[in-house]
Amino acid sequence: MSSSELRHTALDALHRSLGATMTDFAGWDMPLRYGSERDEHVAVRTRAGLFDLSHMGEITVTGAGAAALLNHALVGNIASVGVGRARYTMICQADGGILDDLIVYRLAETEYMVVANASNAQVVLDALTERAGGFDAEVRDDRDAYALIAVQGPESPGILKSLTDADLDGLKYYAGLPGTVAGVPALIARTGYTGEDGFELFVKPEHAVELWQALTKAGEGVGLVPCGLSCRDTLRLEAGMPLYGHELTTALTPFDAGLGRVVKFEKEGDFVGREALAEAAARAEQNPPRVLVGLVAEGRRIPRAGFAVVSGGAVIGEVTSGAPSPTLGKPIAMAYVDAAHAAPGTEGVGVDIRGSHEPFEVVALPFYKRQK
Amino acid sequence: MSNPQQLRYSKEHEWLSAAENGVSTVGITEFAANALGDVVYAQLPEVGSTVEAGETCGELESTKSVSDLYSPVSGEITEINEDVVNDPSLVNSAPFEGGWLFKVRVTDEPADLLSADEYTAQNAG
Known about the structure:
The complex is a heterodimer.
Chain A: H1 12-17, E1 21-25, E2 28-33, H2 37-46, E3 48-52, E4 57-62, H3 66-73, E5 86-92, E6 98-108, E7 111-116, H4 121-131, E8 138-141, E9 147-152, H5 156-161, E10 176-181, E11 184-189, E12 198-203, H6 208-219, E13 224-226, H7 229-238, H8 274-286, E14 291-297, E15 308-311, E16 314-325, E17 330-337, E18 349-353, E19 356-363
Helix pairs in contact in A: 2-7
Chain B: E1 8-9, E2 14-16, E3 23-28, H1 30-36, E4 39-43, E5 50-51, E6 56-62, E7 66-70, E8 74-80, H2 82-86, H3 90-93, E9 102-108, H4 116-122
Antiparallel strand pairs in B: 1-2, 2-3, 3-9, 4-6, 5-8, 6-7, 8-9
C-alpha cells in the first residue's frame, strides 16, 4: 500500500500532530484513533467527541426539477422534505438492491445536498447523473467543496452555542441551517451517527483547521476529545445503525434489511426499483426473510462480520458487525438470522467463533438508546 | 517508545525475559500493543501445556481485530497472567510489566531472537 495514493483531508497535518493512528478508509487516509478507542467512545457517550468526516461524499442537486429527480432516483419522498430539514433515505438498483444509504438535506426550495458514504460516493454520483436525464436539474460533484467536522455527545450543544449565534434550540434532529461557527461559514446540521445528540458542520476545506481548533478550545473545559473511525464504528453499532458493506449491500433490498419504512410507494411518479421493491415488500410480509437482530455475548469472545450464527448445530444466520461494547461491557453484534430464531430471548443461539460455538442472547435493536 | 535493554525480542513482537531458574516471562511489545489497539480479550496457553517457538499458542483480540499469539521459545507453560485474563487492557497500559502474558520453562530457543536495539531498528520508520 502506497500512502501517496491515498487522499488526505484538509485536517491531515493536524491529525498527525495529534498523534493519530491513520488508516486507509475507502481510499482516504483517515484517523482510526488518537489514543484509546474505548476512551474516545466513552467521551462521546458522556461528554463530547470531535470527528473529521471529510471523506463523506457531498453531491449537490439543483434546479426546478431537483425534487422530481430525487423522487425518481431515490426510494424516499424527497419532495416532501421541508427546506432546512434532512432525511435518511436510500438509492436502490432497478432490482431493489441497495446501492447506498444517504442523508439528503434540503438547503433551499430547489437545492438539495445528498451525502453518500465515502466508499459509494462515485457510484451514487454516477447513478444520480444518469437518472437526471429528462429532468430540469443539475447534479454537481461537491466532494472537494466541503470538509465535514462532527461534534457529537451530550456536551455538544453547549460547545457549539459558545461559538455561534445560530438558533440551535430551534434546530431539530435531522435539520440543517446555514450559519457561522467561530467566524466560519457553515451548514450546521443536527445529524450524526453515534446515537448521541450532535452536529455535523459542512465547511469549506480552507476553514477546516480554524474550525477544528476553535471547537477543541471551546470543548476543553467539558472533556471534548478528538475521535477516530474506530470508536465511530462501536458507537453506531451500539445505536443499532446499519453500515454500508455490512448490514446493507446490493444483495439486499431495504425490506430485507428491516428498513422497508424508507421506501415510499405512495409518492408521486415512478422511481427506480419500484416494481422489485413492491415484490420485496410482499415477500417480507408473507414469508419473512432473515431478520436483522442484536446479539449480546454471554462470554468475552468477539463475533466478527461473516461469522456463522448457529442453533442446534445448524447455521441460522450470519454476523454483519461485531465489537466489544464499551457501554454494555460485553461483546455485541448485529446479525441476519432466520425469522424462526429472531425473537428477543430466543434460546440456544450461538456464534461460531473460530470453531467454538459461543452462547449469545438475541435482543431487539438498538443496544443503546440515549436518555432524552 | 523504548524497548527495555534487558529483554530479547522476536520478529513477531513478543518479548522474552532472561531466564530465572530456567523460566522466562513472555509478553508483547509496546509497539505490538499500540498496533493492536485496545486489547479486549486474551486467550492464553494452558498451564502445563507445551509450546513450540514460532507457533500459535493463544490469541489477543482487540476492538477491530484478532491476532494470533506466538511463543518466542519452546518449552512448558508454568504460569499465565490471570490479571490479564481478567483485565486485558493491562497489555496496553503496561506491556512490559503488569501486562506480561505467560511464563515458560525454556527447552529450546531459536537463534534469531533480537536484542532491544535490533528490534527497535526493525520497527523504525
